[in-house]
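Exercise 7 asks you to align residues with tokens for two separate proteins.
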Amino acid sequence: MASDAVLYEAKDQVATITINRPESHNALSAEVRDGLRSSFQRFEADDEVRVAVLTGAGGKAFCAGGDLKEMMANRSQNLGRDFVVMPGRNEVVEKPWIAAVSGHAVGGGVLYTMLADMAIASTTAKFKMPEAMISRGAPWSVALAQQLPSKVWFEMAVTGRTVDAERALQVGLVNQVVEPEELLDTALEVAGRIARSAPLTVHATKKSIRAAAEMGMSAAWDVADEYFDRVYSSEDAVEGPRAWVEKRDPVWKGR
């Protein structure tokens, strides 16, 4: 289970996962990495929770990436693909989740912004990939090919240039920019809207987006049709229009 290095709270079908090491700028120490993995596993396994929000405590940093002191003590400089939990890469997380980014998002902080289904940034957010400055690497950043123009990706990866919140919004790394005091409330409000949406449609949409990123358009269309066959034949597909006509909130069963 998560230690106090990563906090987990669930309310109204939304889980809030908080990296809780502000004194180290929420760097990815072993304790934080273990806490994130167990928190994402808990989120995926909890049938009462539909959406998660990932954020960092303290407001000064979302996540400062790898703990450099810990890395220097590690004889092997190649940390491997399982060094940190990566939903969709080395951990199955089929439910949607949102990154709520305030302050510095460095290395791993960019990673979690990129992996999230949506990202909300505060005006203080600053995104930076410093790997080329210290002879490290970011193989995980290949997923940026589906999110950023290649020239922007290359610039971030090899120059270490800091990208502010407005630039991140312009290039598509985040969905929205808000004032720092509004960040978590905004992320939770968006998460709540997703939680109230038809769960089968949300699930099929997430899978379709991933399929479109991994295959050609024609193949992705065929796969998306298969995903949504379950939606159209479900009880929820009857409940949704009925609730709309009756002017009431739908009661989703997820079947």
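Second protein for Exercise 7:
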Amino acid sequence: MSGRSILLVPHAGRESNLQAASCAAEVLTASGISVRMMAPQDSSILSNHPVLENISLETCLDKATAGVELVLVLGGDGTFLRAAHLAHSADLPVLGINLGHVGFLAQWEIESLDEALSRVIERDYGIEERLTIDVTVYGQNSEVLGRSWALNEVSVENLNRGGVLDAILEVDGRPVSSFGGDGVIISTPTGSTAYAFSAGGPVLWPELDAILVVLNNAHALFTKPLVVSPHSTVAVESNPDSFPAQATMDGFRSIDMPAGSRVEVVRGARPVRWVRLDDKPFTDRLVTKFRLPVKGWRGPHLEE
């Protein structure tokens, strides 16, 4: 097992989280796997920690991911999305253990950390590819204002809460509907249970290849969500007389959109490599995380 290395990305805001990170580091190190960790904003919280102060802290992405076989995330969905950015950039698999509340993106809960670490040590896990989206924002003169990507969604939002964003939705180079409202959410199947769901969108099973479009509090005749081909190009053009907007990817990467700008969204060139520790269906995860009522279910009739 010599030469193996894992990047640990914990949510360092709570003592219990640091304890989980410490446990993971000790188990992995004892198995001959070197551990490095992304430095938190306030590294002083690790200075007197008996275990984590001895872990190599990295601030540079290239150094953090060089030679790493897996990114291990300990935290909630926000921590996972930030870690997925590291993993995506370096084309590394990412595994999430939930320390938060809902934790829809995590593979397992903190109670199963020991088993998850054992599976990682033995390389007893699978990898599936999750669809991403690539995002480009253009100015009024077709100049590129910024590029980014998202695992969950890009949300085009009006920056003036006293007014509405006047825009038009376009799919595959053809106009669909003009609207005024808070904005529009363009989501992957993975992100369909996040912001898009809160805005009234449907849940898409993650193995589905599709792009979801949800108008957010729109004043328009047609406001139904759209599920379009993964090969489609979805665009939103703001009116030159509208308010400035912002395209926000996964809740923490943003590109400013002056009035009259345009955002184009296509299927991502690189998926996120998602570590799977079991083969349980997405249906079970949906029921568990949303605490859906299933009492009285009898199951399919099986002929003997």
